[in-house]
Amino acid sequence: MTDAERQIEQSRVDQVIKEIQLQINATRTELAKAHAETRAVEENYGANASINRYEIDDIAESRSAIEQQRQLVARATENEAILQHQLTTLEQLAKQPYFGRIDILDPGEREPESLYIGTASLMDHTKSEFLIYDWRAPISGIYYNGTLGEVSYQTPAGLQNTKLVKKRQFTIIDGQITNMFDTNETVGDEMLQAVLGEQDNQAMRNIVATIQHDQNTIIRDTESDLLVVQGVAGSGKTSTILQRVAFLLYHARNQLNADQMVLFSPNQLFSHYISQVLPSLGERNLRQVTLHNFLQRRFEGLQVESLFERYEERQLDRSHQASDDFFESPASMAAVQDYLALIRQHQRSLQFIDVTFNGRPFFSQKHFQHIWDQIDPQLKLQDQLVKLKNHFIRLLKQRITKIAQSDWLTKELDTLNRQQIQRLLGSKSIDDFEDTAAYDRYLARQLAKQRLRIVYDALYNNLMIDFPNQYTDFLQWIDLPVAIDRQALIQSFQHQLEFHHFPLSHTAPYLYLRDLLTGRGQNRNFQYVFIDEMQDYPLSLLIYFKHTFPKAQFTVIGDSEQALFRPLEAPQVLLKRVSKSLQAQHSTLVNLQQSYRSTYEITKLATSLLPDGDQITAFSRHGTQPQVIIRHDSTAWQTALIKSAQRLQNDYQTVAILSQDDLQAQALYHLLHPHFGQLSHLTEHDLSLKTGIIILPIYLAKGLEFDAVIIPDISQDHFTRQQTGQLYTMMTRAMHELFMLSLGPITTLITDSQHLQIDQQISFKTK
């Protein structure tokens, strides 16, 4: 690239930034006016938000005026929010206006047209020329997918053809071009080397400047109702999915908003880690929820076992493994449907309990059972339940009439103050009644309805059904594998319920049974569901998600070889199982085999653990060889661990010491705490990452990356063949350096590796 070309490009950057600054100043002025208008409208609304309740005409007029004021407030607030969003976008563009340029020659044209690609579109203030094209615009797809020559791109009007004659890439920092080159690739190695060589900053960044061809295919897919992404560690799969969210919001802006999307993330740490990606692209964050939080909301009053809690428990006791495997399989979900068919036909009992009022049965279990037995078994199950509830709601209304005439309610009515009486009257006034008797009867009935609302709510929410007992009956009926002791299973389930605990393996079949029986539990508003770390999700829960979000398109991402909570399996096997469970009509499977996170040396060591590791491509960013420090007594091992952490702390912002479980993490923290001031022990309750030395169990590090990683003990006692996925996941959290210690002989998983430096007496000089 000549100096003259660089000067021309810098001159354009300067002109664009000048235009951006002009628009920033104008937007700030408009925002100040909008803010003042919003405050004025809100003050006016507050001053006039009262209703004259004495005359009917006055009430209607007051309500109309208040509604007009409310709409004015909403419009003013929305206008201010739009201007604030514009200002934020412009301020981000001022730092890095764009990162790419494509020169295209359309059919019939003599001269190519230069288009510049950035994180957001920008027109000049006259609205006559695009200075920057949003990376999500149809034409921008050429930058990511096209090589020089004839290319095509999809638009709302159909497929368009053009010729790509130049592709140029920029690194612009604070308005200055620091790197610039022409390429025929999506993103040249030079730019990737610069981006990937940076130190970790505790938050995932957007990757729009470095999106690769396969990643772009995932991002721009709008046809698949199921998109399954199998991506090796460090392939950028989570980043890609977040760019996909941004693209979908741009692509269907008039039909889709962030509230109609949900991302299931592995833990709260990870949710915080990715929280800045979408705002950096000018989009609101979609809803994020962990599996545990999702389940906890559906089991009010019970403490649901988390994946992490079960992982810790299974480290000590694997006696429940056969039961877990069965109830987390599709077979258990199919059994739920068969069981409910028997209930519909009245061949299996529906389990009822009393609905009480003031501590006494209001409708008895026997009464519910008697009415249920008379309902036509040919009706759909939900229709039978509706008939049952309607019967008892009619009885409730009759009881309300009687209770309204009771002495105890009349006495209670006499004790009410003016404010309580006004609440019973609602929009009515005393003038709406013929006489005092009619007025008293109305108040008595309203008070009776209010007091018996608890009974109505119980009927409406199906609380006359004993769901725990119903599920226990399901456990009595279901055909179990011979390895499972039925009575021990039921006793364990009931014992945990007594202490308000609910086992994770039973959550999907229990909720599925409850939802199918009652016709509840579905949310048809969500259009997209994203599931990260899919390999950690039981198939039963994926089936339940499909039931819960029946209108949503699913994007599930993960790596079968990073399985911590389930056995390691080949990627093709995992993809087939997931696709079958979600029953997609139009599914797409994408494999991301290029690893970008770690240095070449770390990636080659990590992939050497895997049976198909030779299919994973390591990016050619070189660093030091991963190192193993072997010590044969605990004192020497502790000294080596402390010195390793000190050396890495001097060179990097984030150094993670990864343990196999939280018990080991606690022990490491107590060991290292006297030697380090900036030391953190993270648990599943932590919401954000910290700098310095971080100790955490590997299951909390899923999806995260660190400048350097220390694995404190890779001895054969700690890592057998069953822990291959665990060790692979630990290694691939490291971006730049990987230190491993061993107290005694190292695991046979890596003894023969050629990608490892083993040193019995390693020195600890700072780089």
Automatic annotation (TrEMBL):
MF annotations from Gene Ontology: 3'-5' DNA helicase activity; ATP binding; DNA binding; hydrolase activity
Signal peptide region: none
Keyword Coiled coil: yes
One GO term (biological process): recombinational repair
Gene Ontology cellular component terms for the protein in this record: cytosol
Residue intervals of the UvrD-like helicase ATP-binding domain: 210-599
SUPFAM superfamilies for the chain: P-loop containing nucleoside triphosphate hydrolases
Statement: the UniProt record of this protein carries the keyword Hydrolase: yes
Coiled-coil parts of chain: 17-79
Keywords, ordered alphabetically: ATP-binding, Coiled coil, Helicase, Hydrolase, Nucleotide-binding
Binding site for ATP: 231-238
Protein name (record): DNA helicase
UniProt cross-references to PROSITE patterns, sorted A to Z: UVRD_HELICASE_ATP_BIND
Organism per entry: Limosilactobacillus gastricus PS3
